Amino acid sequence: MRILEEDYGSKLIIRLPRGIEVTESGRELLNKAEFWRKQDKHLRLEMQRINKESLVVLKLGIMECLSQTLPQQIEQGLAHILGQYRLDIKVGNTHALLSQLESGELDVIIAFNVQDNRQVRLFSHIDCPIGLIYSPNLNLTASLNLTESELTANTPVPLADCLQWPLCLADDELSFQPRIYAEIMRQKKAHTLCATSNSVNVLKQWVIAGRGVTFLTQFDVAKELINNELCFHPLKEKRLSEKLCLCLSTNTPMNQQMRAILVQLDKIIQGH
Asked: Is the N or C terminus of the chain more exposed, i.e. has fewer CB atoms within 10 Å?
């Protein structure tokens, strides 16, 4: 207090036998301090309000298979067009993501095989061929009686030729399961179903462990392809294809900012 009185150049308090008494100068300083405190509080509240208004919150739903590689690309892609923003990501299957989009829990979803309806607007899509997923330890050329030159990365393989290996297949909770099973039955060729699961990650782990082969898209195995844990080869049956869709709710305003977000997300998906 003595230092404050020296700086202020005036007596601020009077010490009495039973306490202290604030002088007129002290009272004036207290009033100024209270004013400064209120001004500081007002400024902080105003800054919080401005930050809250400027903060863009994007609630995005993506498929399980995209969760290991896509979020980082989205973070980088949206940062330069949104500035300060928050990204809330939910992971699920197509049915769950659609339900959350329609209820307003999500703004945008990236999911397989979505159909336009009154509540869902399809912004763009990309066709994703389903292919044979196998371990790098599997000698594909020898098994198919082909040479390395005959079997390039883009040479389609007939599904019938893939039935010689044990199959780890999706169960009926995954949207592409009925088409895979129907196509297998159409081959009229013996096959061994060794395991099923409603999880793409479980199917991939089984194939990595050498239990068998499966059929998925390149999006499903993007990380494993990068890490050389799995291999992908396209199937000859062109109808075995998934459609990866970028969708928003019909209740979401298609303003300039939302369009910029969707365009950027579409670029990321196309280049994924």
From this structure: N
Fold held by 55-127+243-270: D-Maltodextrin-Binding Protein; domain 2 (3.40.190)
Q: How confident is the model at residue 117 (pLDDT cuts 50, 70, 90)?
A: confident
Give backbone dihedrals phi and psi of 214, rounded to 5 degrees, phi first.
Answer: -145, 180
Q: What is the 3-state secondary structure (H, E, C) of 154-193?
A: CCCECHHHHCCCCEEEECCCCCCHHHHHHHHHHCCCCCCE
CATH of 131-239, one of 3.40.190.10, 3.40.50.2020, 2.40.30.170, 3.40.50.1580: 3.40.190.10
Torsion of CA 192, 195, 201, 206, to 10 degrees: -70
Quick one: pLDDT band at residue 203, thresholds 50, 70, 90? very high
Q: How many Cα atoms sit within 13 Å of 27 on the Cβ side?
A: 5
Strand duo 167-170 + 231-234: pairing: unpaired
